[in-house]
Amino acid sequence: MVVGQNNKNQLEESVYNLIPRNEIRPPKASCYVSKFNPDVREKFNEGKHERRTMGYAEEPAPDPQQFLKKNQNNTKHNVINDNKDTSLNKDRAQRKPPVPSIRDAPKMGTRTEKNFIQTNALDVVMTVPKKPERNTVDDRFGDKFPIDQSGLTQKYVLKKNFGEVPVYIKTRQADMEKAKQEYQTYVSDYFRRGAMREMDIEEREKIVDGLKKQWEDVHHEYQTLSVLIDTIPKRQYKERLEHQMKLLEKDIDLLEKHHVIYIAD
């Protein structure tokens, strides 16, 4: 702390600090002034207070000989009235009957033979009573809504044709069956012309049974092989048996998968 104070005193007592110096401040940069400032000011003030007291110069003065009507000088009221759609008023005026003239005298002494009591009684008897609405209330405030359109009632289950196959599905199935029969007929004719015949079901089952029996024999030979296959002939014999079983399985799968098989005689 002592060293710091000594350094400060030495700086204040420097020779360069004895002569007072004038503080030199750099000049400020000039503010930007737009060259369009006078034009903007003139445009802003142009026509600002032209009609403060006298109103629009183009508006004609009212004729002093004619009295003023209600809301005649109210420009806002006139604009609103001009913008109103009077088509509704015109329709109402056209629907109204004409006003009777002074010469049109009312008809007096006319009578009718209609029995209003009997007519009203018949109307009441023949009238179909109104069915009460099917509503439901689901809260304590009594708010109700129709239950038929809500989905809470069984609507489609009670139909007469419920559970039946739709007509379009029946039509589609009939078309598919017809197309299948036409294809079978076409294939039969094609192979008949090419001297080919269709294999019978009994013949196909007989061939499948023979292939399965042959596969069992080969599989029995495969199971009788020795556990240790240490020579080349043993390995070749095992591979040959595996190849025979794969071929037999392929033929059995082919015959069982395809129900219609054509054979060339």
Automatic annotation (TrEMBL):
Entry GO MF terms: calmodulin binding
Keyword Cytoplasm: yes
Subcellular location per the Swiss-Prot or TrEMBL entry: Cell projection, Cilium; Cytoplasm, Cytoskeleton
Feature: compositional bias, Polar residues: 68-81
Principal location listed in the UniProt entry: other
GO cellular component: acrosomal vesicle; axonemal microtubule
Presence of the UniProt keyword Phosphoprotein in the record: no
Superkingdom of source: Eukaryota
Keyword terms of this UniProt record: Cell projection, Cytoplasm, Cytoskeleton
Protein name listed in UniProt: Enkurin domain-containing protein
